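Q: Start with the shorter request: fold the first protein.
A: Done. Sequence, then structure:
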Amino acid sequence: MEKKKVAYIYDPAFNTFDYGSEHPMKPQRIGMTHELIESYQLLPKLQVYKSPSMEINELLEFHDEKYLQFLQKVNPENEEQFSKEMEIYNPEEDCPIFKGLFEYSCLQAGSSKLGAKLLNDKEVEIAINWSGGYHHARKSQASGFCFVNDIVLAIQELLKHHTRVLYIDIDIHHGDGVETAFFSSNRVMTCSFHKYEDDWWPYTGKVSRIGTGKGENYSVNVPLKDNIDDEQYIYIFKKTMKEVIDRFQPNAIVMQCGCDTLAGDIIGDFNLTLEGPAECVRFIRQYNLPLLVLGGGGYTPKNVARCWTYLTSLLIDGKKLEKELPENIDRDIYGPNNLLYIDKYNRENKNSFEELDNIYTEIHNHLKNIEIVTSVENLIVSTKKQLKIK
């Protein structure tokens, strides 16, 4: 693969935030990823940018003002004073109020928007923000460890210069927040590959959930079962994404690379090695479209760092990394074998190729209803146009 101009957006401040010792979300995984990227000597191949903090007026392009005021004011010391607001804006126990919460969210969102701007200005071909990808946050509500939806804000920025934006989500959880935001839009197609069962949070993501109004058939959902492996995952991903891209003809792509799909994740129940997400990224990279790559879930930090470092290398020039971890890496963290790559577990795969083909057939039947608009006037997008989304 040819080398591409790749932006990498990072701030060491992410290491200072803490959801709590018992919470599975560990912002320190961002710093671990950075250290591994640096140890593999990838930084000189990247255009490195410091994460900017998003301003309140930028957050208002998607989020509700009263919700943002709540996030600005609440902290662990005064949380009890906001009991009524907590019921409205943060009803789930999985989004704890921690010190620096608003600063953390602004850095995430600012980083993703910067990536979108760099793509809009054609400064780079690919932009990476591993601190982003918080796909559950709603317009006025925290959800699923997510307070601000950096993805929606970045897509809005891309839409100022691109007629059609494709959003791809390979996190184990359904990308419900992004899907809901663009559910009635025909300018954004959302495509989520996720675990779906009646008792699996967020309890959404059936293949029959396809969008509404102008957005009908522009939401694609690929529901999967426990312990899917690389072979099956790559099979359904490539088959679906080829159809999606051929039909939708996007001008830019946003890809959320949550790695709670990996074998050994403390929350996820898939059985992928690094080659699962890696092959998905390779496949999308080959389309040579402006590409914003974001993080997401992933709750075994040492494997998150392994995965995102490997994906960073692939995005630069398609090259694999040395199997042995660099000598300057903390062996106590990555032991006992000190290898980059991980093995899948010996578990019963609940998926079958027949079931995957049935899912694809249903998706195909929805996608064939899409009419592609290619007139010149529709390729010109006003940068001043305000997007009305849910």
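Q: Next, the second protein, separately.
A: Sequence, then structure:
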Amino acid sequence: MEGVISHVYFDFFGTLVDYDASIHPDRANAPAEAVSRLGLELSPGQASSHWGHAWAELDGKAQETGRECSMWEIATLFFELCGAHRVPRTELNRLVDEYLRAWTANVRLAAGVSECLRTLAAAGLKLGVVSNTHHPTLVQEQLARFGISASFERVHTSVEIGWRKPHRELFDAVLARDGISAAQAAFVGDTWAADVAGPRAVGMHAYYVGAPAPGREPIRMQDLPAEIRSAAGPVV
């Protein structure tokens, strides 16, 4: 039924899970270990600096244009900045894998998420994830890690679609994939521009679960099902 909420989409990082957004995880310095394996004479600090520059250049461009970049592109530019060109794909993959293993070590399921998902699913709503991410399997792996994969019918990622939130091309692609109108969708997230303003601009309902700010009163995760169900009407 047009205009009746049937699907609820969740942002991942900062919404379903708590995480440290720093690009330099404390657990391990994967970029430094990668250049050491290649025999490059760079200190850990120099490797971290090059990693930061590669990340800032490509992620900054992605933010500016809306076109997502991948971890492989970041790793490739990192090696080039270190003076290593034509690095084997196996080394690119190893750097990406080891970096993401360290970066996700302290990711934790956010409070109230499991019960919220169960309540929404029990109400007959279809759940999905829509996440900005640089790696195509990262979100799915974390969903499995925390035992909530089965709650979601589909995972949509920016690196797969090619566009990142808050650009409407991503939301349009998600809605087209699920065969629904914007009015049938609700979006939940912790970042105002990406998860509230972006969805609302295409006609979706949106619910903010981030930090309080002037004009931005968050909804608690435990209160979310009632809020969405009150707006959803009869579920189709």
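Q: Describe the second briefly.
A: The first helix runs from residue 30 to 37. The chain has a mean pLDDT of 96.
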